[in-house]
Amino acid sequence: MSVGIIILVVAVFAALGYVIGQRRALSLSASTGKKLHSLPGYYGQTVALFAAIPSLVVLVAWLFVQPAIIESRVSGMIPDSAIPDGGARSLVMADVRRIADGLDAVLARGQLDEGQLSAMRADQTNVRSLLADVGVALGSEVPNEVFEAAKVYRLGSATGNAAMAVLVLALSAGLALWSYRRIAPDLRARAISESFVKSLLIAASTVAILTTIGIVASLVFETYSFFKIYPASEFFFSTVWNPQFRGGSELGILPLLWGTFYISMVALIVAVPLGLMIAIYLAEYAGPTARSVVKPAIEVLAGIPTIVYGLFALVTLGPFLRDWVAQPLGVGTSSSSVLTAGIVMGIMIIPFVSSLSDDIINAVPQALRDGAYALGATKSETIKQVVLPAALPGIVGAILLAASRAIGETMIVVLGAGASAKLSLNPFEAMTTVTVKIVSQLTGDTEFASPETLVAFALGLTLFVLTLGLNVLALYIVRKYREQYE
Description:
Largest sheet: 2 strands, antiparallel
Distance between the termini: 61 Å
Helix content: over 70%
Order of helices and strands: HHHHHHHHEEHHHHHHHHH
CATH superfamily of the largest domain: MetI-like
CATH architecture of the largest domain: Orthogonal Bundle
Structural class: mainly alpha
Strand content: under 5%
Low-confidence stretches: none
Number of strands: 2
Number of domains: 3
Shape: flat
C-alpha cells in the first residue's frame, strides 16, 4: 500500500471520527440530561485528532528510519571487491536501489514471478534486457553480489511498507475507537483539542528551527570535509577558479564573489532608484484609479519566470548592448556581460523595492505630513525631509530583500552573464556568480567525495555567512535610524 493511500485512509478515519464523535456527545447529553462541558464540535475534534496525529507521526518516523535500516543491512552484503576502482559505496547503493525498483516493475508487469526472481542470478543474459524493458539502463556489468543485494533491498522495502501500513492503520483505528469510547458529557474536550493544536504549533516551529539547523550543519560538515582535502588559504585568497575534475584544480572563490557582488550592485543601481520613485508616486501623487492600474502592472514583473528574463537578456538586451554600445566603444565583443545580467535582474527586482516601499510610505502617520504642511513645507519638501526619513528603516529592509533576491539569482546570470570566473572592472565582460558555480559543480556524474564537488558546499557556506553579515549590518542601520523617530 502506497503512502498516499495510507494518508487518505487515515484522513477518512479522522473525518468519520469527527462526525460520530460529535453525534455521540449530543446523544449522551440528550439521554443523560447533562450539559456538555464543551461544544459538540470539540468532541468530534478529539476523535479526529487521536485518529490522525499519532498515526501520521509514526508514518513519518517510519519513512525516515526504514531506509536507513535497510540500506545499512544491504550495504554490509556488498563486498569491497564488488565496488569498481575509484568508485564509492554510495554509488553502488544507488545502483542497488535502481535495480530494486526495476525488479518491482518487472514483477508488476508479470514478466517474472517471485520464484523465478529468487532463482535468477546477475550473470544470466536476460537480466539486463528485463531491466531495460522497464527503463532501467545499466551502464556496466552488475556483479552477482550487487544483484542479490538489490533483491534483498526490494524484499526488505516491501516487507517494511506492509508492516508500516498495518501499524499505522491499526493505530489510527484503535486510537479513534479509544477516543470515541471516552466521550462523556463532562469530558473536557475543548482542553484536549486546544492542547493538540498547541502541540502542532510548537511542532511546526520546531520543524522550522531544525530545518535551519540541518541546512547549516550540512553545509558546515561538508565544508569541513572539503577543507581537509583542499587548503582553505587557497580557497579564500586565490584569484583563479579552474576546476579540472581530474586533479590539479584551482578553486579560488574571489572571482566568484566579485562577480556576485558586481552583478548584484548593477541590479540594485537599476532597481532601487526606479523602485523608490515608483513607490513615492503611488503613495503620494497617484490617484485611486492610477494606483489600481499601475501597482498591479508593476507587480506582474515579480511573477514572470526567471528563465524568461534570462532569455530576454540572451536574445534581446545582450546583443543590443554588444552591437550599439560595447563594440562601438571598443570595450567588449560578447553579448554575455555583467551589464546585461545586472540590468535584467534589476528590472526583475523592481517590484520588491516598489511594493514594499509603497506600503511602508503609506504607513507613515498622516500627522507628520500635516505638521510639515502647517510649517509651510511644500509637498516635495515634506516627502524628502519628513516622509522618507520616517520610512527609512522599512525602505532599507525592502532594499535588503531585493539584494538577497539578486545575490541568489542563477538563471539570469547563466544566460545573461555567462560562466566565466574572472576579476575585472569592465561591465561589458562575461562573469559569473557563486550560485551558478554551485549548480555547475553539483551537476554531472562526478564522485561526491572529490574536492571539485565538495567545493559547492564551501561556496554555499561562504555565501550564507556573507548574507548573514549583510542582514546584521542592515538591522543595525535600521535600529539606529528608527530611534530618531520614536
